[in-house]
Design a protein that fits this description.
By secondary structure, the protein is mainly alpha-helical. The chain is built from 13 helices and two strands; from the N terminus they run H-H-H-H-H-H-H-H-E-E-H-H-H-H-H. It has three domains: about 90 residues, RNA polymerase sigma factor, region 2, helix turn helix motif (Rna Polymerase Sigma Factor, Chain: A, Orthogonal Bundle), CATH 1.10.1740.10; about 55 residues, Up-down Bundle (Butyryl-CoA Dehydrogenase, subunit A, domain 3), CATH 1.20.140.160; about 70 residues, Up-down Bundle (Butyryl-CoA Dehydrogenase, subunit A, domain 3). GO terms for molecular function: DNA binding; DNA-directed RNA polymerase activity; sigma factor activity.
Length: about 250
């Protein structure tokens, strides 16, 4: 089915198969926007999560789009998808909006000054450039530090120069032996690769279920199919995932 035919059938009768076709066709837009939004956010906010929020925004855009107004769907969906991502980030972020904006200003100002001067800037210079006093600057930095400490998934530079999670640097007296850790990381790598080998629909269902923690019933409402159909699609996706893993381990 061509995109033009999918649009025609969806507009005329809200055809389910056409809706799926349009969602899959516009997934690259979701991925593009997730990449752009992620650049401006703390590193512990995962791009995959943003893509999940964006998919929900894309589906809402399809349901609410009015083609009679003559507006481009891509333009309309752009704002709906981006808005869905930012709305979810704000819901998860404890910082007030004004504090978040101050943090973003601090970050951009510091990066600009260090680029211009070629060195680390002092608090006095930074505060003067932002038009605030040292006390307010310290408060902004304190809020930012609390935000970052809220997640152990943030990546930092390790002793060998590689990127590691803060969680991996926390001492655990009950931690498994190093070989187990290596095996676990290799398993995660293979699992990630196997998921990437799946089709778009399978990845979407697994993302909504395991990343966004939606129930089968909720996924059915999003995809406009029955809960039993979602259960069937989920089972098929898991079978294909297991088959892909087995083939990778055997090669």
């Amino acid at each position: 089915m061509s995109i033009e035919l999918a649009w025609e059938k969806f507009i005329n009768c809200r055809d389910e198969e056409s809706r799926k076709k349009l969602v899959l066709h516009h997934l690259p837009l979701v991925k593009h926007l997730a990449g752009r939004v992620a650049v401006k956010l703390p590193t512990f906010i995962q791009r995959e999560d943003l893509e999940g929020y964006g998919v929900i925004g894309l589906m809402e855009a399809l349901d609410k789009y009015d083609h009679t107004l003559g507006n481009s769907f891509d333009s309309y969906a752009y704002h709906r998808i981006r808005g869905a991502m930012l709305d979810e980030v704000r819901r998860q972020n404890w910082m007030p909006r004004t504090a978040w904006q101050k943090f973003q200003q601090l970050k951009s100002t510091k990066e600009r000054l260090e680029g211009e001067l070629g060195r680390t800037v002092t608090e006095d210079i930074l505060a003067k450039e932002m038009g605030i006093d040292i006390e307010e600057l310290n408060q902004v930095q304190s809020n930012a530090n609390k935000m970052y400490l809220a997640s152990l998934d943030e990546e930092v530079v390790g002793g060998d120069g590689s990127q590691v999670r803060k969680l991996d640097l926390v001492e655990d007296t009950n931690s498994p032996d190093p070989l187990s850790i290596v095996e676990e990381k290799e398993t995660r790598r293979l699992l990630s690769q196997a998921i990437n080998n799946l089709g778009e629909r399978d990845r979407l269902i697994l993302s909504l279920y395991y990343t966004n923690n939606l129930t089968l019933k909720e996924i059915g409402q999003v995809l406009e199919v029955t809960e039993s159909r979602v259960c069937q699609l989920h089972s098929q996706a898991m079978k294909r995932l297991r088959k892909s893993l087995i083939e990778m381990l055997a090669s």
